[in-house]
């Protein structure tokens, strides 16, 4: 009986690699010296939602972030690999010191090749994550939105929301509680205090419960300082919770309502309210009136301010205008309470026409 012919050995004496081995080697080459290629715990960056065109979104993000990053932190500096930091020659005689020096040189050369902004796989459609290095994401994004809010100049076409991510952890309740106890201290631990709200969004994740997460995080904020209070109308801080697969992204941002949930397209359309143009008057009027001015209709944003000006110019009609002003404020409060409440409490299930994430 004829025996089957044996295949000739592959050159090099090894067996033919399977497809999985090739894929792993390819990923290893991509990750070598370039940092992580997908969203994972321990990263900082910027989470960006887009409108069905992720490649164009990444291009716009690089252009926008480099423009404002150079403005805040100066031009990005690149160093050749040959200019690596070297230790003293005396330590070369010691094997242990030489080994530590070699490890340090490898780490230093890796950091030199890392860019200030690098796109990584987010794990969700229409979502881009830009890893940042050596910058503070919340300050950079706030600076971008503040400039767009003032100039009303549209600088992007496909980018919708741009959320800074100051930290990431595993998307399990115990891991999130342990991480948040330390993460939230700079904003809410005594003597620091402030009003806050929590917004929650989950993508490609079914094991996390929205109500449990919000309840636990609110309890942690309250335990850091008893003077921290919940304010769904005009909070000083907004705790952003973005969960994608098994990764939880956290950040604490300011002016979340003013900047239209950090939506670049809506900020360009929005009008400047009088509370931001005249901060002294807003402070005297109180947080309640400032919130009504931000959340009211565009046609009614300047009515309270105009009523106040008319009251000062024509004192004999002060009583009539004061009653009109009170009635207008009540109408705005009644009309704005519902959308603000739904925007904070039902953030995870909102259906925004522009945000397809």
UniProtKB/TrEMBL annotation:
Family matches, as InterPro entries: THUMP_dom, THUMPD1-like
Map out region (Disordered) in residue numbers: 1-22, 73-93, 270-357
Give the record's GO biological process terms.
tRNA modification
Q: Which PROSITE patterns match?
A: THUMP (PS51165)
| Residues making up the signal peptide according to the UniProt record | none
Q: Does the keyword Disulfide bond apply?
A: no
Q: Which keywords has UniProt assigned to this entry?
A: RNA-binding
Start and end residues of each THUMP domain: 147-254
Q: Give me the stretches of Polar residues compositional bias.
A: 298-315, 323-332
* Composition skew (Pro residues), residue ranges: 1-11
Q: Does the keyword tRNA processing apply?
A: no
Entry's Gene Ontology molecular function annotations = RNA binding
What SMART domains does the record tag this protein with? THUMP
Q: Write the protein's name.
A: THUMP domain-containing protein 1
| Organism per entry | Vicugna pacos (Alpaca)
- Organism lineage string: Eukaryota, Metazoa, Chordata, Craniata, Vertebrata
């Amino acid at each position: 009986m004829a025996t089957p012919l044996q295949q000739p050995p592959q050159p090099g004496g090894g067996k033919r690699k399977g497809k999985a081995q090739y894929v792993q080697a390819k990923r290893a080459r991509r990750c070598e010296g370039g940092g992580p290629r997908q969203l994972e715990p321990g990263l900082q960056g910027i989470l960006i939602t887009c409108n069905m065109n992720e490649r164009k979104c990444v291009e716009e993000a690089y252009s926008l972030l480099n423009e404002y990053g150079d403005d805040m932190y100066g031009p990005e500096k690149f160093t050749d690999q040959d200019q690596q930091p070297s230790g003293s020659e005396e330590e070369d005689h010691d094997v242990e010191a030489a080994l530590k020096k070699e490890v340090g040189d490898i780490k230093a050369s890796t950091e030199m090749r890392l860019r200030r902004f690098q796109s990584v796989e987010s794990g969700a459609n229409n979502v881009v994550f830009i890893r940042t290095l050596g910058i503070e994401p919340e300050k950079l994004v706030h600076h971008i939105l503040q400039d767009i809010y003032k100039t009303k100049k549209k600088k992007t076409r496909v980018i919708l929301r741009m959320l800074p991510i100051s930290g990431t952890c595993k998307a399990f309740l115990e891991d999130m509680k342990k991480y948040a106890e330390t993460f939230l201290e700079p904003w809410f631990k005594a003597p620091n205090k402030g009003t806050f709200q929590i917004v929650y969004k989950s993508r490609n994740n079914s094991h996390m419960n929205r109500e449990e997460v919000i309840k636990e995080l609110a309890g942690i904020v309250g335990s850091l300082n008893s003077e921290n209070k919940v304010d769904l109308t005009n909070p000083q801080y907004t705790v952003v919770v973005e969960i994608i697969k098994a990764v939880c992204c956290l950040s604490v941002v300011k002016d979340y309502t003013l900047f239209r949930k950090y939506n670049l397209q809506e900020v360009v359309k929005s009008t400047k309210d009088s509370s931001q143009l005249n901060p002294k008057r807003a402070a005297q009027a109180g947080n309640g009136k400032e919130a009504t001015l931000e959340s009211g209709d565009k046609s009614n944003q300047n009515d309270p301010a105009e009523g106040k000006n008319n009251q000062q110019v024509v004192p004999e009609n002060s009583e009539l205008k004061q009653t009109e002003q009170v009635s207008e404020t009540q109408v705005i409060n009644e009309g704005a309470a519902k959308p603000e409440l739904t925007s904070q409490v039902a953030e995870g299930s909102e259906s925004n026409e522009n945000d397809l994430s």
